[in-house]
Amino acid sequence: MKKIIDAIACEVTAAFEACGYDGKYGKVTLSNRPDLCEFQCNGAMSAAKQYSCAPFMIADKVAGRLSGNPMFAEVNSVKPGFLNIILAPAYVAQYVNDMAGDAGRFGCEAAAEPLTIIVDYGGPNVAKPLHVGHLRSAIIGESVKRICKFMGHEVIGDVHLGDWGLQMGLIIVELKERRPELVYFDDSYEGAYPTEAPFTIAELEDIYPTASAKSKEDEGFKAAALLATGELQQGRRGYQALLGHILNVSVTDLKRNYRSLNVDFELWKGESDAQQYVPDMVQKMKEDGFAYLSDGALVVDVKEETDAKEIPPCIILKSDGASLYSTTDLATIVMRMEENRPDRIIYLADARQSMHFTQVFRCARKTGLVPESTELVHIGFGTMNGKDGKPFKTREGGVMRLEYLLDEINREMLKKITENRKEKENLEISDEEAGETANMVALAAVKYGDLSNQASKDYIFDVERFTSFEGNTGPYILYTIVRIRSILNRYVAEKGGLPARSGILPAHTAGEKSLMLVISRFNAMMENAFEELAPHRICAYIYELANEFNGFYHGTKILAEPDEEVQRSYISLLMLTEDILLTCIDVLGFSAPERM
Q1: How many domains does the chain have?
Q2: CATH number of the domain bearing residue 27
Q3: Domain annotation covers residue 391
Q4: Which residues lie across from 82 on neighbouring strands?
Q5: In a structure prediction context, what are the per-residue pLDDT tens digits for the chain, which is 596 residues long?
Q6: Is 371 inside any structural domain?
Q7: Same domain flag for 466 and 379
Q8: Which of 337, 379, 547, 555 is surrounded by the fewest CB atoms within 10 Å?
Q9: Hey, what long-range contacts does 192-199 have (CB within 8 A, 24 or more apart)?
């Protein structure tokens, strides 16, 4: 379905051409003066020089040509040469009815040639609990994945676990000190290893920080951990079995935590899965003349003549032959090209890692790991800060576990919902429903609070503001949806059912038309959000849509409307508004309760 602004531009472009002017001047934009008009065209201002006449003369001719076109209620030429456009209510009503008839997509066309897209987000380390630093990658990545899916692409989300390197050796050595009798440390053992892990997630989460602290004070312990890491990577059976246990225990806990964020991954691959591709990849880079030794390390030059700043070589192997993050990321690209053949790989990671991804992407292209047709994208996000403007910490100054943060917000939302229940004595909500509702609204508060900001920017995590039912917040959006549902339920109770979704009449009031106009921009907004990989575009749209609906609600007696046909039209408009809001919040990664 053609975007409404494109449909308008087609008519305006045709009018320019009919008047003898180049059609390129018929570009239409949303009005920057909504008090005067709904759309505008400034093409006459640009055309004046080419046609050696005053802009208003061109605008007058084009406006005259558009006079009588049923799409428009008014097209006015305004000096010095602007075209102010107001759409006909009947045209707007027909457009939104067509949207309503396109259930689930609302006029947003799915990709004609779907891409295979991998979204690499999450990035937690095994054996360590998720903390607030993992929040943005999970929330933004999940929404980006859902945006791509909504637009009709084949999308694969990969958690990309940190399960390789020194941290594994540290865990192994610390576990050996605590439980030396375990069969995993017996070199002579040739039997099958136990299927049950020799530790719980709580024990594992104690083992790693203890081992990490020891390695900073005890050189012998660190040397033993480095040795264990090497033996693990070289395939020592007992250590490989322990790695399997670490992964099983960690992933089970990670899935539980991600589930609380409504985040789900299609792949649970880790750095270890890519290691088998490293030897051949390195050998090929050497044979093709890309990789060379520099101070003992194997590197590939990735600088380009157009670089404004120095781009260091991409290190493939350290001087001791050990892999780095760049090695793993490049080998993961090899694995993905072999297994999935993606057209695009999108990485969600802190903006401060931009140099790393520049080096890895350039190296992958230069050495032929990816074809030119495969796009590599890094969405670098800013930091989540406390009210003091510094990275978010606990009151004691430590990094807060993610589940503790979510529990805190859930409690805040439950408190507000309980207070609301007391204020509205007729609102009968059980304690169980109140708890479930609090969890849903709290998740909306957290996700919307993050996603409503441009990903690349830092933002202040303000629990009080995010959990407010007023202003640009997740709870406000949900409250609007619940308000619509309440009206629809009352209508059903009175009339016995809902009208046709596409039974919307031309607007009777300015508020009703404004709501329709915002609805009409849904498909353009979704296309833009996909093109920019920008969830904040969706947040801005639904905030505007919620505001327009609430303005219409306060200015219109919907259920008291005496004309039944008009009332059915209002209800159809509410149904479409609800459908679009629900679609948008699903793409953002949260849902709405029945009542609040």
Answers
A1: 4
A2: 3.30.1360.70
A3: no
A4: 78
A5: 999 999 999 999 999 999 999 999 999 999 999 999 999 999 999 999 999 999 999 999 999 999 999 999 999 999 999 999 999 999 999 999 999 999 999 999 999 999 999 999 999 999 888 999 899 999 999 999 999 999 999 999 999 999 988 999 999 999 999 999 999 999 999 999 999 999 999 999 999 999 999 999 999 999 999 999 989 988 899 999 999 999 999 999 999 999 999 999 999 999 999 999 999 999 999 999 999 999 999 999 999 999 999 999 999 999 988 889 999 999 999 999 999 999 999 999 999 999 999 999 999 999 999 999 999 999 999 999 988 888 887 666 678 899 999 999 999 999 888 887 666 655 677 888 889 999 999 999 999 999 999 999 999 999 899 999 999 999 999 999 999 999 999 999 999 999 999 999 999 999 999 999 999 999 999 999 999 999 999 999 999 999 999 999 999 999 999 999 999 999 999 999 999 999 999 999 999 999 88
A6: yes
A7: no
A8: 555
A9: 193/237, 193/238, 193/241, 197/245, 197/246, 197/248, 197/249, 198/245, 199/175, 199/245, 199/249
Whole domain around residue 355: which residue ranges?
118-161+271-385
CATH number at residue 473: 1.10.730.10
413 and 498 within one domain: yes
Please identify, among 236, 260, 284, the residue that sits at the C-terminal boundary of a domain: 260
Q: In what order do the strands lie in the sheet with 344-350?
A: 154-158, 116-120, 344-350, 375-381
Same domain, residue pair 192 and 147 = no
User: Token digits for 423?
Assistant: 């204020």
- Work out the widest C-alpha separation in the chain, in whole angstroms: 95
Residue 398 CA, distance from chain mean position = 27
User: In this structure, what token pair is assigned to residue 228?
Assistant: 């264990």
